[in-house]
Amino acid sequence: MKSVLTEERFNIISDDNKAFILAFDEKISKLSYSFGGNIGSGACWGKYMIIYSKTGIKSKQVAARIYIKENSIVLRLF
Question: Cα–Cα distance between 60 and 38 in angstroms, integer?
């Protein structure tokens, strides 16, 4: 996640929000959830979206999404 957030397109994320995303990613990874290395389009919720789902299973159970907006992030837990 750390290397992904260094991409130029994520310069819109504040350092505090990047720190939150990295901490959240570390904790949720310990519970066997992953974003799969891909940060996609956020559609109407924001510019980008991180989707965390259970690893190692065929039917993806989404546990959380982080929507990245121009000046903030939104964490949505399921």
Answer: 15
